[in-house]
Design goal:
0% helix
Length: 83
């Protein structure tokens, strides 16, 4: 069975949105700072951000979390910028 890619929403602070792409519990997206290389992360736990699941942009230090759908480390639901 092949893996399916889907478009997911990236939610930035301030209400702005962008698009990313996900396969299984992995997602890739372009940071709002315009970094050429995409950020890559895997989904974490339903309870929220925990050690090892926060993604930091090396250019601007924005922080992100890949939200799972339905279960811990499940398929990607969306990506959010966090404090």
């Amino acid at each position: 069975m092949t893996q399916k890619q889907k478009i997911v929403t990236v939610h930035f602070k301030g209400g702005e949105k962008s698009k990313g792409i996900a396969t299984g519990n992995n997602a890739a997206w372009i940071c709002k700072c315009g970094r050429v290389e995409p950020l890559l992360g895997r989904s974490g736990f339903l309870k929220g951000v925990s050690k090892g699941f926060r993604i930091d942009c090396p250019n601007c230090e924005r922080k992100f979390f890949v939200v799972p759908e339905g279960k811990d480390q499940g398929a990607v639901l969306k990506v959010i910028e966090i404090d």
